[in-house]
Design brief:
The complex is a heterodimer of chains A (264) and B (309). Chain A is α/β, with parallel strands linked by helices and 264 residues long. Chain A has one domain: 3-Layer(aba) Sandwich (Rossmann fold), CATH 3.40.50.300. Chain A is 34% helix and 23% strand. A six-stranded mixed β-sheet of chain A has the order 6-7-8-3-9-10, with helices on both faces. A four-stranded antiparallel β-sheet of chain A has the order 2-1-4-5, with helices on one face. Chain B is an all-alpha fold. Chain B has one domain: ABC transporter involved in vitamin B12 uptake, BtuC. Chain B contains eleven helices and two strands; from the N terminus they run ααααβααααβααα. A two-stranded antiparallel ribbon of chain B has the order 1-2. In chain B, α2 packs parallel to α4 and α9 packs across α11. Chain B is globular. Classes of the chains: A alpha/beta (264), B mainly alpha (309). Chains A and B meet through α2 and α3 of A and α6 and α7 of B. Chain A: This is ABC transporter ATP-binding protein. Chain A: It comes from Paenibacillus selenitireducens. Chain A: InterPro entries: AAA+_ATPase, ABC_transporter-like_ATP-bd, ABC_transporter-like_CS, ABC_transporter_ATP-bind, P-loop_NTPase. Chain A: It is found in: Cell membrane. Chain A: GO terms for molecular function: ATP binding; ATP hydrolysis activity.
Chain lengths: 264, 309
């Protein structure tokens, strides 16, 4: 489904600020895989997301989605395969537009945008039904401006917008990190249910160790631009947070340093 | 007085299309586009030349619209593909258009006396409401299509709309062209109504457009796209009424108009932020007074407890 081979990325090459963000990364996701990604600050997690979604082009290597080489396609052309939720709850929605207009924009992902109305009666019924799945009452506020929603509500809407058109790949970039614990829990549960129901191939970056172990069928750990640990479903079932941290120290030689790390 | 008021409504309607254009760039795309000063004249120049050569006024107005589209597309290209700052690309285009407009007209000003224009047979007061409603209606519809939603999202959250597969360069160029097309159309209508085109007719147009949009929003609100476009139209009319009153003040000259316009815009931009600050200060004072009185009571409670021991 997603195949990344020998991808490298460097920032500010040839200057004193030169930084290797990704070094020779190989990663293969099977259809339906739900992979959680953890790692220290600057490990390259977000760069990996940006390279998959096309915000950045890799210096080297190839990215294949469903057999198509996409590494040279710009972000807006890759979006037909990729659904994405950002860390910032403000990033995934347009605040001055209504909930149904935002959903209509998401609905048009991967299609040619023409001169037919964005919100039709039929689509509105579909949006209503989809919003009900979130269970937070947004279906009764279709005409409300998204800017009026709370961070948690906006993130739930972003999650729905990224997934309801069944993308080939779902990228979640610390999408619960900016929320308070109870809202983060709600979004985590929604994520789990949606991914399971729709069998989405998912890559989720998180700084919550417990979440990383609890969710998904595979866990990878990154450090200094490399994948240093790849834990399969069998081992993940018995894994604990302290084992995970110990493993990290053993391989990288340092303690895991993420200023926002949540040990769960 | 009544005739002055009717005159104000008439020119307000003629300038309304320009105000709608400014609304598209300034509010929807969040892109302060100074091309307007040049493209307004471009529209006037194209209409003047074509009408005086005997072409149909409708065709002339259409060509003016297309000329504006082209000018706007150039600004959009400079900004998106050339990565030039938005304000600067507008200024560059405005200066370039000065020479182009001169080429179109061939002379600094041109009279249309004695030629047939759109308004020869029917007064603007009857024709313009119809024109503004049709164009405004079409625009409202467009802004609710899939493409129109993408244009609106470009100004609202460009990163988000890119992640949903719209090419924001294209939507920006589309929006800026459309805006300048409307501005040029407005210029062509003004030329046909006054029977006169002049190189300097577009100077300060962007500020007049902003004034109309801001006044309209302040009075009529801008909760939906329909409301906002209606507000731009009504704002344009109110602006002309304010100008008509200002001109009746004895110690003001017609040349003071631009200063008055600038002052209106400054006040309109300044007032809301002052209001907000004052309100915030008031709430903050009240809240901190509340909190202070609470902390003041606590030690009292402590003392009482202490005396029990």
């Amino acid at each position: 489904m997603l195949h990344i081979s020998k991808v490298s990325k460097m920032f500010n090459p040839g200057t004193p600020d030169e930084k290797i963000a990704l070094m020779n990364i190989n990663l293969h996701l099977n259809p339906g895989d739900f992979v959680t990604v953890i790692g220290s600050n600057g490990a390259g997690k977000s760069t990996l997301m940006n390279i998959i979604s096309g915000v950045m082009a890799p210096d080297h290597g190839e990215v294949h989605i469903s057999g198509t080489a996409v590494q040279s396609l710009p972000e807006y052309r890759r979006s037909r395969w990729i659904g994405r939720v950002f860390q910032d709850p403000m990033a995934g929605t347009a605040p001055r537009m209504t909930i149904e207009e935002n959903l209509a924009i998401a609905y048009a992902r991967g299609k040619q945008r023409g001169l037919s109305f964005g919100v039709t009666k039929r689509k509105r019924a579909f949006f209503y039904e989809q919003l009900q799945r979130l269970g937070i009452g947004l279906e009764n506020r279709l005409h409300a401006k998204v800017g009026l929603l709370s961070g948690g509500e906006r993130q739930a809407l972003s999650l729905l917008m990224a997934t309801f058109t069944e993308p080939q790949i779902l990228l979640l970039d610390e999408h619960t990190a900016a929320l308070d614990p109870s809202r983060a829990e709600l979004i985590t549960t929604l994520t789990e249910n949606i991914v399971k129901d729709m069998k989405l191939t998912t890559l989720m970056v998180t700084h919550n160790m417990d979440q990383a172990i609890r969710l998904g069928n595979r866990l990878i750990m990154m450090d200094k631009g490399r994948i240093i640990l790849d834990i399969n479903e069998e081992r993940k079932k018995t894994l604990t947070v302290s084992q995970l941290l110990g493993e990290f120290e053993q391989i990288s030689g340092n303690a895991l340093s993420d200023d926002r790390v949540v040990l769960g | 007085m009544a005739s002055a008021l009717l005159g104000a409504v008439e020119s307000g309607l003629l300038y309304a299309l320009m105000a709608i254009g400014v609304y598209i760039t300034f509010r929807i795309l969040d892109f302060p586009d100074l091309t307007v000063d040049g493209s307004f004249t471009t529209g006037g120049a194209i209409a003047a030349v074509m009408v005086s050569q005997g072409y149909s006024p409708v065709l002339a107005s259409l060509c003016a619209f297309i000329g504006g589209l082209a000018a706007g597309a150039c600004t959009g290209l400079l900004h998106t593909k050339g990565k030039i700052n938005g304000l600067l690309s507008g200024i560059l285009m405005m200066i370039a258009l000065y020479s182009i407009n001169m080429r179109i007209m061939g002379k600094p000003n041109m009279s249309l006396l004695g030629t047939d224009t759109l308004f020869t047979a029917i007064s603007p007061l009857y024709l313009m409401p119809f024109v503004v409603i049709v164009i405004g209606g079409l625009l409202v519809c467009f802004l609710h299509t899939d493409l129109g939603l993408a244009v609106r999202a470009t100004g609202d959250n460009a990163r988000m709309i890119r992640s949903f597969g719209a090419h924001t360069d294209n939507t920006t160029i589309l929006g800026v062209s459309l805006a300048n097309g409307l501005v040029a159309l407005s210029g062509s209508l003004i030329t046909q109504q006054t029977g006169f085109a002049d190189m300097s007719m577009g100077i300060g147009m962007i500020v007049i457009g902003l004034a109309s949009v801001i006044i309209g929003e302040a009075i009529f609100g801008a909760r939906s796209v329909l409301r906002a476009i209606l507000a731009a139209v009504l704002g344009s009319i109110v602006y002309r009424i304010i100008v008509a009153f200002a001109l009746r003040v004895e110690w003001l000259d017609a040349s003071d108009l631009k200063l008055i316009t600038a002052v209106i815009v400054i006040v309109a931009l300044f007032l809301p932020s002052v209001q907000r600050r004052l309100k915030q200060n008031k709430v903050a004072k009240k809240r901190s007074a509340e909190l202070a009185s609470m902390t003041f009571e606590q030690p009292k409670g402590g003392e009482r407890n202490a005396s029990h021991f």
